[in-house]
Structure formats: structure tokens, C-alpha cells
Amino acid sequence: MRKRASLHAMTMALGLLASSAGASFDQCLRELGDRARQEGVSAQTVDESLERVRFRERVVELDRRQPEFTESFATYLERRITEQRVQRGRALLAEHRDLLEDIAHEYGVPPQYLVAFWGMETSYGGFFGNTPVLDALATLACDGRRGEFFSGEFINALRILEEGAVSPEAMEGSWAGAMGHMQFMPSVFLRYAVDHDGSGRRDLWNSVPDAMASAANFLRGIGWERGLRWGREVRLPDGFPYEKAGRDNRMSLSRWAELEVTRADGNALPEVDVEAALLVPAGHRGPAFLVYENFDVIMRWNRSEFYALAVGHLADRINGAGVLHQPPPEAPRLSRSDVKELQRRLNEKGHDSGEVDGVPGPNTRTAIARFQREAGMVADGFADYDVLESLGIEPEGDEA
Questions:
Q1: Does 108 map to a domain?
Q2: Is residue 36 part of a domain?
Q3: Could you tell me which of 379, 382, 378, 375 has the C-alpha nearest to residue 360?
Q4: Has residue 326 been placed in a domain?
Q5: Which of 304, 284, 106 shows the shortest CA–CA distance to 196?
Q6: Of 151, 121, 118, which Cα lies nearest the Cα of 134?
Q7: Calpha distance 382→373 (Å, rounded)
Q8: CA 166 to chain centroid
Q9: What average pLDDT does range 230-249 have in this prediction?
Q10: d(CA 147, CA 158)
Q11: Which of 170, 200, 221 is the last residue of a domain?
């Protein structure tokens, strides 16, 4: 009897919570509507749109979910730069060559980069996402964690509907509200989307010309330098000082050459007046890259070094290059608790890794390098198996 009463009470409590959440969402929607009208969206667009909007619990779950395990560079590339994706990209590059060359002439972004972004974002238009964009944005606006940002994006999405770029039924995208072939957020759409095919509307769902030109316009707008590569794979000499690595340490190519850095095939670096930073995303046993200003532009599209390296490498592969000269080795699969334990033990040994937060950021890499140097290891700042074993850490992710 007590179990039944307890179950009944729990059911009632959950029902009340759901009812409360629903009431809160409805109130939030009304406030979003009021704000949209005040910011110039027509009452008709607001009223018709709000009638369709629904709260999406799944969106909240995905927004709050933290990845349990860090993904190694080897795994990241393996999952995204597949032979199938490379071959498909080459075929699309050939199919749309005239269009892409015209866009490159106008905006300064070479064709292979646009195709690489296309492949990374939606697998060349294979999957745009199936969440109604207004639902996703309203849910995130009203959930509270990043409410102001998503409130603005929700209103921007209403503006896109008002201009007739897409029908409400077709306005679907990712769980976070990114849309179309290139997964633009509404604010990016409004600022950078273009009608390249002359249809009279900016259609990033059904028009490849609009999508490619819009991506090129966006890249140009965030700083793409015409005539400059993203970077390149390089070869490092034995005994290389890895404290020189990192995006915050930029030097001229001539200075890198003085440190005996060469192209990956052993030939000399090009004699051009540009600065570059060195990245070793898988430690000294993996590939090394010199990255230029356009790499930072790619990171303004997506703030992940792995993503930017993947875009650059995929662009090279689509343009005819081969695989990496030095493939990334397998690396420990670290859980957030593994990283926290790593940070704790580094701190205990006097190598300040900063806050014990489970995020392997720059402070953690610097602390690892100090520990490696003290232990007589190659001080590349990478948490490989030698580092973990020396610190007495057995990764959870490597357990059978």
C-alpha cells in the first residue's frame, strides 16, 4: 500500500513539474513574441509562428549533455575523413567546378575548402537535421542556460521566415538551430547568406549555389585571406623543443625553418612571408602541423582545433593530396573523471594544471609538459600512456 501511495505521489509530483514547465514555456513564448514585435517582426509572422512552436525536451537533454569521454585526434579523423567522404568530395568538386571557381573568383575562397565544409557539416547535404528550428531555438531560449543568445536567434529565425527564404514547414535543422547545407545559425544567415542563383530568395536548403556562395561570403567576412593555405603537415627534427608548439606562439616560416622544420616529405618550407603556429594534436608520435591565419578563420566557424585540422586536411584530400605522412597513433580514451584525476595528481606534484574540471585545456597541457620534462620524457604536453602510467592512472575508457 505504501509503495502504491509513494508511486502515486511521485506521479503527481512529475505531473505538477511538467505542468509548471509547460506554463513557464508558454510565458516565455509570449515574452519572445512581445520582444519580436518590438524589434520589428510583423504581428502576423509572430502570431502564426508561435502557434506552431513546441517545447522539445530532447533539445534540453542534448544541450546539457557533457561528453563522458574525450575523443582522440586519431578517432576524430577516422570518423570524419573517410575514404568515402574524400571520394564523394572529389566527385562533387568536379561536378560543381564552374560554379565553385566563379565563387572563388568573387570571394577568394578556393573550391576545395567549400566542399570540405560541406562534407563536415552535413555530409554534402545528406543530413540537415530534423528538428523544427523554431522549436529548438525557443526551447533553448526558455531553458535559461544561454537564454539571451538563443532568444536573439529565435527572433532572427522569425525574420528569415518573414523574408520568405523558407517555409515554416521546411525550416528544420540541428537540435541547436543550425540550418541548411552549411548549418548556419539564423544570425549568420541574415548577415552572410546570398541569393547566388538569382531565384529571388536566399535558399540554403535547396540551392547548392546559394549555400556555397553564402559559405564563401561568411568566410570572407570573418577574415579569410585570399591566396593563403590553411596550413600544412610538417616534419620535426629529433630533439625538437615542444614548448614552441601552441596557437599562441606564432613565428615566421623562415624561423621555423631555422629550427629544422620541413614539409612532411622532407623538402624545405616555402619561402613566403607568413607567420605560423605549430600544432601537435596527438603528441610527438603523431603528425605535426604548421597552421596559418586561415586556420584561425576556420576556428571562427567552429572553435575546435580538431575540426579546423579536419577541414584543412579534407580540403587537401579533396584537392588530390594523399593521406597524412605521419598518421596519429592510438591514444588513451580518457573520461572526464580520468582528466580530473590527472589534473589532481599534477597539482599534487607541483605542476599547476588550474581548476580540476575534467577539461584538458592549455593549463593542463602545460602542466603535463612540466611533468614530462621533470621525468625525462619528451615534453609535448600530451597525456599518452607513459604519462598516465607514471602518474598511476588507469583510464576508465580503456577497460574491457
A1: no
A2: yes
A3: 382
A4: no
A5: 106
A6: 151
A7: 12
A8: 25
A9: 96
A10: 16
A11: 221
What rounded mean pLDDT belongs to the chain?
92
> Cβ of 13: how many Cβ atoms within 10 Å?
10
CA angle in degrees (0–180, nearest 5) for 190-61-4: 145
Q: Are 175 and 65 in contact (CB under 8 A)?
A: no
- Residue-wise pLDDT for 159-200, tens only, equals 999 999 999 999 999 999 999 999 999 999 999 999 999 999
Instruction: Quickly state the pLDDT bin for 1 (edges 50, 70, 90).
Output: very low
Q: What is the DSSP pairing of strand 288-291 with strand 231-235? A: antiparallel
d(CA 302, CA 309): 11
Give the CATH number of the domain where residue 357 resides. 1.10.101
Contact (CB, 8 A) for 175 and 63: yes
**The C-alpha cell that represents 69 in the structure block:** 569521454
Domain interval for residue 362: 336-398
Alpha carbons within 13 A on the beta-carbon side of 358: 10
Query: Which pLDDT band holds residue 69 (cuts at 50, 70, 90)?
Result: confident
Q: Are residues 178 and 50 in the same domain?
A: yes
DSSP H or E segment with residue 289? strand 288-291
Residue 216 shares a structural domain with residue 340: no
CATH number, domain of 35, equals 1.10.8.350
Could you tell me if 374 and 309 are in contact, meaning their C-beta atoms sit under 8 angstroms apart? no
**Domains identified in the chain, total number:** 2
Residue from 288, 246, 295 nearest 274 by CA: 295
Per-residue model confidence (pLDDT) at position 6: 44
Say if CB 212 and CB 103 are below 8 A apart: yes
- The tens digit of pLDDT for each residue in 22-36 reads 569 999 999 999 999
Q: Which one of 221, 236, 271 terminates a domain?
A: 221
Dist CA 142 CA 144 (whole Å): 5
For 137, what's the count of Cα atoms within 13 Å in the CB-facing half-sphere?
27
Q: Distance between CA 362 and CA 24 in Å, rounded?
A: 40
Query: CA triplet 307, 309, 310: central angle to 5 degrees?
Result: 65
CB 232 within 8 A of CB 208: no
pLDDT band at 309 (very low <50, low <70, confident <90, very high): very high
pLDDT in tens, 282-302: 999 999 999 999 999 999 999
203 in Cβ contact with 210 (< 8 Å): yes
Question: Is 177 part of any domain?
Answer: yes
